[in-house]
Every structure is written in structure tokens, then in C-alpha cells.
Design goal:
This protein is an alpha+beta fold. It is built from seven helices and 14 strands. It has helices spanning 27-57, 72-88, 121-126, 173-176, 206-215, 227-233, 248-260; strands at 62-63, 69-70, 94-96, 111-119, 132-139, 142-150, 155-159, 165-168, 183-184, 196-200, 219-223, 239-242, 264-267, 287-290.
Length: 298
């Protein structure tokens, strides 16, 4: 593996599989979505700078009612992101981890943002650098735009439609608005008998190990946060199984990047992982992320 701090491999051809993506992206729609992604990337960079200030200065850790940790960095990042989203798209509601899902199980709006202001708080506390800022736009239950920033390892990814996945150079907000500097990425083609898996560093379960043994994964790399989706999108791994609990804001941005790079994310029943699951409190079922449709193993 080239490493979490490395750049992605060169882009390969993206395969359109009609089971999961009935229509190739319309060029005008893709361009508009990538303009939106650029604005969201600028917002993520702003939040990332605030996170790194706290990361370097030191911080205290609190425990939320669900026993998960939270820090000042989570809260400051969320405040910056939500303020920017209100300015950029005041008519589009946002659901964010620290603010919490809506108190009622009313149906989700057809279009909304999902935000995880600091995905991988345990990695943040452990100071291994594998934490991210996640911002996604959901339309009709699908993540259509996603931004994943890993500020400590200086990697920034966007997905804005099939065939529109990129790794962006790290810089200031104005730099990411220059789309000429975006480098296309794509998930790698199947390599029979040479599957490389990426698994959760902090939440790995026995079911994960059983699944990886079943599919014959040749190597396994542990990583934190939504970086796991991005490693598949970059061509650095082939499969990411997740049998532990996740929420929609944990996965939406990474899924958008991976699907833009040619991959897909399926539940264990083989259905695309969808969004707006208000009845479950926006919790996800177990899922498996694949780099390419042709390597899916039942």
C-alpha cells in the first residue's frame, strides 16, 4: 500500500454499472455539482485549520450520553461548517453529528447536507492523524457530492458525480476553487486473488475478520475515519467491510467520493446503502464498500 499520507494513483477508466448507476453523469450537472464541491472543500479547509489549532495546542475530552468522546475541536469545526452552509445554501437543511439528528422520525427532506465535523474523534485523541472532516449533499436518498478532508495527513478528496472524483492539493480556500489543479482519481480494477482490504482501526469486529477470511483478502490495512472509503477511491485497496455501528454522517461523504471513483457501497443484503433513514435515527446497517462492481463477492 502506498500509505495514508501518499498521493493517489493515476486515474483509470471509470466503469458505469447500470445496477447501481443507471445513467452516466450529464456534463452540465457534473460541472455544477463540482462547483458546489469546490465551495464545500473550502469550508472543510476552514474547519480543518480550526481542528489543527486545537490538535497542536492540546485539548480536554468529554463523554457524550452515548459514551462516545467529544472535544472542543468537534464543536468548533461544526460551528464553522454549519455557518458556511447556511450562507452557501440557506434553503438546504443540514444534519450534523454534534447537533444530532432531528428529534422526530419525520421523513427526511429530499435534499439535505450531512456533516461529521470531526470523524474519528478517537484517532484525534490518539494523535495518529487519521481523522477527517466530512461534508456531503444528499438528494433523494443518495450522496451526490462529498468532501473528505484529512487535515493532519494533508489529504483532501471530493466526489461530485460518476467519473468526477478528485484529490485536491492542500492550500487555502481560494486554491481549491481552481479546478484546474484537481487531480482525477479512480478505484482500481479487479486483481483476482490479490484483494487488499482496509478495516476500521478503532471498531473492528469478529464479523469483519470472518468476512475477510471468506473472501480471501490477501492483505489487510487498518485505518481510521472515512479515509477508508478514500483509500478505495484512490486505488490503494479493494474492499472495506463495516459490521459495527455507523451513522449516516460517518459515511455519506466517503461514499460519494468512492462512487464518483467507480466504486459502490452495499448493505449485506446487496442493496445500495441509502440515506435519510429517519426511522432509525439516521443509523446505518452493516455494509461493504467495494472498489469496483466486478469484484463484488456475495
Amino acid at each position: 500500500m502506498t500509505g495514508i499520507r501518499s498521493g493517489c494513483a493515476a486515474k483509470a477508466n471509470v466503469i458505469y454499472d447500470k445496477r447501481f448507476s443507471p445513467n452516466p453523469p450529464d456534463s452540465m450537472t457534473a460541472s455544477a455539482d463540482c462547483d458546489t464541491a469546490a465551495a464545500l472543500a473550502a469550508t472543510a479547509l476552514k474547519a480543518g485549520r480550526a481542528i489543527m489549532e486545537i490538535y497542536e495546542a492540546g485539548f480536554s475530552v468529554e463523554t457524550k450520553p452515548d459514551r462516545s468522546p467529544v472535544t472542543e475541536a468537534d464543536r468548533r469545526s461544526e460551528a464553522l461548517i454549519l455557518a458556511d452552509l447556511e450562507r452557501l445554501a440557506p434553503a438546504v437543511p443540514a444534519i450534523s453529528e454534534e447537533a444530532g439528528a432531528p428529534a422526530t422520525a419525520a421523513p427526511a427532506p429530499p435534499r439535505f447536507f450531512l456533516v461529521d465535523p470531526l470523524d474519528g474523534t478517537r484517532e484525534f485523541i490518539g494523535r495518529n492523524g487519521e481523522f477527517t472532516v466530512n461534508i456531503a449533499l444528499i438528494e433523494d436518498g443518495r450522496p451526490v457530492i462529498g468532501v473528505v478532508l484529512a487535515p493532519a495527513v494533508r489529504r483532501l478528496f471530493v466526489g461530485c458525480g460518476r467519473g468526477q472524483a478528485f484529490e485536491l492539493p492542500m492550500g487555502d480556500e481560494m486554491a481549491v476553487l481552481n479546478r484546474a489543479s484537481w487531480r482525477p482519481i479512480a478505484a482500481r480494477a479487479a486483481r483476482p486473488g490479490r484483494l487488499r482490504a482496509v478495516a476500521s482501526r478503532s471498531h473492528r469486529k469478529a464479523e469483519t475478520d470472518a468476512f475477510l477470511a471468506k473472501i480471501g483478502a490477501q492483505s489487510i490495512v487498518s485505518a481510521g475515519s472515512s479515509l477508508k472509503f478514500c483509500l478505495l477511491a484512490c486505488g490503494e485497496a479493494d474492499v472495506y467491510p463495516r459490521f459495527g455501528s455507523t451513522m449516516e454522517w460517518d459515511t455519506a461523504a466517503g461514499q460519494a467520493v468512492l462512487e464518483a471513483a467507480g466504486g459502490l457501497v452495499l448493505t449485506v443484503q446487496g442493496e445500495p446503502l441509502g440515506y435519510g433513514k429517519s426511522a432509525s435515527g439516521y443509523a446505518n446497517p452493516p455494509f461493504i464498500a467495494w472498489a469496483r462492481p466486478e469484484i463484488v463477492i456475495s
